[in-house]
Design brief:
With 155 residues, the chain is mostly helical. The protein has four helices and two strands, in the order αβααβα. It has helices spanning 53-68, 82-87, 89-102, 130-151; strands at residues 80-81, 115-116. Strands 1-2 form a two-stranded parallel sheet. It starts with 52 loop residues before the first helix and ends with a helix.
Length: 155
């Protein structure tokens, strides 16, 4: 999705009205779709890609800066539509392995944790609908609580 459309009242040809500027809240979240019906979309297949080491370095530097300031930082994976996840599972596993080997910050949960059924997506295999967002938020809270609990040291 082209960022220029987020700052204008126009939408790209073929895009749904949910993506218009008026449907973005003060935090920058697209919320216009939350009460709308889902759209059909094709299964997405991710191809193997090279890890961008500049991004890894940036994330590692960010993690170290935050850690030095006393903050805890975790990386949460994107949501995956179930069939797209299975069609892309080898690529996703390779990415997970590479991130576990090269990233200083821990993954909050394995990518499979954020695999959801198609009925929880609005119009693409990455864009959750309102119920999907609520479920993912619950998962993130659970995963953060679990991560925090494992960090607690006995007094």
């Amino acid at each position: 999705y082209d960022l220029k459309y987020m700052t204008s009242a126009r939408t790209p040809k073929g895009q749904h009205v949910a993506y218009q500027r008026k449907n973005v809240n003060a935090q920058g979240d697209i919320v216009g779709h939350l009460e709308m019906s889902n759209f059909e979309f094709p299964v997405k297949v991710e191809k193997d890609r090279e890890i961008n080491m500049d991004v890894i370095k940036y994330l590692n530097d960010f993690y170290m800066d935050c850690h030095a300031a006393g903050a805890e930082v975790y990386l949460a994976m994107t949501s995956f539509e179930q069939k797209s996840y299975f069609k892309s599972s080898e690529s996703i596993k390779k990415l997970e392995k590479a991130m576990n080997e090269r990233l200083d910050m821990p993954l909050l949960a394995p990518p499979a944790r954020y695999r959801f059924s198609k009925d929880l997506f609005f119009d693409t295999p990455e864009h959750l609908n309102g119920l999907g967002r609520d479920i993912r938020t619950d998962y993130l809270i659970q995963d953060l609580e679990k991560a925090r609990a494992s960090q607690v040291k006995p007094s």
